[in-house]
Automatic annotation (TrEMBL):
Listed EC numbers: 4.1.99.3
Family, similarity comment: Belongs to the DNA photolyase class-1 family.
Keyword presence, Lyase: yes
InterPro entries linked: Cryptochr/Photolyase_FAD-bd, Cryptochrome/DNA_photolyase_1, DNA_photolyase_1_CS_C, DNA_photolyase_N
Source taxon at top rank: Bacteria
Molecular function GO terms recorded: deoxyribodipyrimidine photo-lyase activity
Keywords: Chromophore, Lyase
Organism encoding this protein: Arsukibacterium indicum
Protein name per the record: Deoxyribodipyrimidine photo-lyase
Location of the Photolyase/cryptochrome alpha/beta domain: 6-143
Keyword hit for Magnesium: no
Pfam families noted in UniProt: DNA_photolyase, FAD_binding_7
Top-level EC class as recorded in UniProt: lyase
Length: 482
């Protein structure tokens, strides 16, 4: 540290990548322009806050593994990454005050949209500005940042299709820019700096996310492989959980190993004219990335969502059941509905669940068991490797018919016909519910016809009955709303 007099600090949070990282790019450019300046990347693990946000252990482990990997990747570009262990967001302010004393001249970071994160960043911005430190936030979580896709009257879209139309027209007007990999000129001695600051090094995780590679190049190769070899079939295969028809990139998008900009850039490169065809795999995949942005725009415009309020206010009057026994059976994959059980066990065993199954299990919890969607939302968050507030809340409110552009309340998935349609051979069910793997043919979807196979649980609810109860609950609320 002897020669370094000013530090340009990049606070990494949801942008754990070195390619297409605006904060790193601008920090290195600024530091390389100044004498005796260096870039310091910083990550602060805050397990107490993560726990409060129900962040799944597997997601926490992925973050820790990615940060350690990124340390090596950035070191090869002469950029030091200081990974610290704190407790909660309130500790971040103390760390920045020590960094200010150690010569920090500027902070760079990518914006986050959740309420507490916004408050934290506002407070730290004020604290640093008071100390004459420049603060630079880059709004790159979405390709089209919130506030840029609005209705003609300047409001946030509440319905997806017109949002998407507007989004696509904006895409046609611009080229997506991805930042190149940064290279700094001076490497900070992190060990010495940590000693000087008296801060604690980030602890290792327990390795429970080991099935998910964390090297940036491997993740970029996955994206390229998907866009070259799989995206053309996406529209035909994406709804079938037994086949690998989707990208499985959600965990990387959630913690920012990949940016949405990189995804669309690669898609444009590989898919070419197919992107312009409405039902092509490429354009349907692009639509999913637009859904991701739609929910983020909604979250920023309606911060009450973070307090788990329903988007459609009248649905707050629904009296959901508080049945812990039924909820436990759903969580553990013991409902007696094979597709629901297979899906919940996929989530519990792997930390990931196929999108069609997220819709089926969410619908089952809310519309077959009449249990509060917030219980399910929290459970998903506590298990998902890609757990992400906007998409998870959006997905749950969609399924519960309480959200923006939600499924109409009277459209209630029948879990058995969903199973017949989307797992026709029962391959997915047999993989995750071994007790009924021996059941032949179509009976796999409803193995209770003669008698429940030994070792498997009887159905915890009658779907037709449950459907009537749910319809009555919604009708009541809609009626009293006038
Ligand atoms: C009840 C429920 C809860 C969900 N919770 C989450 C969550 O916590 N985190 C999360 O990233 N997604 C969530 N989703 C959306 C979706 O299920 C996952 O993004 C998808 O299954 C991830 O797999 P993939 O990467 O193979 O997706 P692909 O089909 O390859 O899609 C590409 C990317 O688009 C985005 N995406 C796809 N579908 C959606 C969608 N409906 N809404 C928002 N973004 C989407 C994801 O970033 C995904 O990686 C949820 C959906 C439902 C119905």
């Amino acid at each position: 540290m002897s020669k370094i007099t000013s530090l340009h600090v990049v606070w990494l949070r949801n942008d754990l990548r070195s390619y297409d990282n605006a904060a790193l790019h601008h920090a290195t450019a600024a530091a390389n322009d100044e004498q005796n300046s260096a870039v310091l990347a910083l990550f602060i693990a805050t397990p107490k806050t993560w726990q409060r946000h129900d962040m799944a252990p597997i997601r926490q482990d992925l973050l820790r593994r990615r940060v350690l990997q990124m340390q090596t990747e950035l070191a090869s570009r002469n950029i030091a990454l200081m990974a610290l262990e704190a407790s909660s967001y309130s500790d971040c302010a103390k760390i920045f005050s020590k960094l200010a004393d150690a010569g920090m001249v500027a902070l760079y970071g990518q914006t986050e949209y959740e309420l507490r994160e916004q408050q934290r960043d506002k407070e730290i911005t004020q604290q640093l500005q008071r100390a004459d430190i420049t603060v630079n936030w880059y709004d790159r979580l979405c390709i089209m940042p919130p506030g840029t896709i609005l209705t003609q009257s300047g409001d946030t879209y509440k319905v997806f299709t017109p949002f998407k139309r507007n989004w696509l027209s904006r895409l046609h007007e611009q080229e997506i820019r991805c930042y190149s990999k940064p290279k700094a000129s001076v490497l900070v001695d992190v060990k010495q700096l940590m000693q000087q600051l008296g801060v604690k090094e980030m602890a290792d995780g327990d390795g429970c996310s080991a099935d998910w590679p964390v090297a940036e190049q491997q993740v970029l190769d996955k994206l390229r492989g998907f866009c070259q070899q799989q995206v053309a079939d996406y529209n035909d295969k994406r709804d079938f959980p037994a086949v690998k028809g989707t990208s499985r990139l959600s965990a990387y998008l959630a913690c920012g190993v990949l940016s949405a900009q990189q995804c669309v850039n690669r898609l444009q490169m590989e898919a070419g004219p197919a992107l312009e065809r409405e039902k092509s795999g490429a354009s349907v995949w692009l639509s999913e990335l637009i859904w991701r942005e739609f929910y983020k725009h909604i979250l920023l415009a309606y911060p009450d969502l973070i307090k788990h309020k329903p988007f459609q206010a009248e649905t707050a009057a629904i009296r959901w059941r508080q049945n812990k026994t039924l909820f436990k059976a759903w969580c553990e994959g013991n409902t007696g509905y094979p597709i629901v059980d297979a899906a919940m066990r996929q989530l519990n065993d792997t930390g990931w669940m196929h999108n069609r199954l997220r819709m089926i299990t969410a619908s089952f919890l809310v519309k077959d068991l009449q249990i509060d969607w917030r219980w399910g939302e929290q459970y998903f968050m506590s298990k998902l490797i890609d757990g992400e507030f906007a998409a998870n809340n959006g997905g749950w409110q969609w399924a519960a018919s309480t959200g923006t552009d939600a499924a109409p309340y009277f459209r209630i998935f029948n879990p058995v016909t969903q199973s017949e349609r989307f797992d026709p051979e029962g391959d997915f069910i047999r993989r995750f519910v071994p007790e009924i793997a021996h059941v032949q043919g179509k009976e796999i979807h409803w193995p209770h016809k003669k008698s429940t196979p030994s070792g498997y649980c009887p159905a915890i609810v009658d779907h037709d009955e449950a459907r009537k109860i749910t319809l009555a609950m919604f009708t009541e609320v809609k009626k009293s709303d006038g």
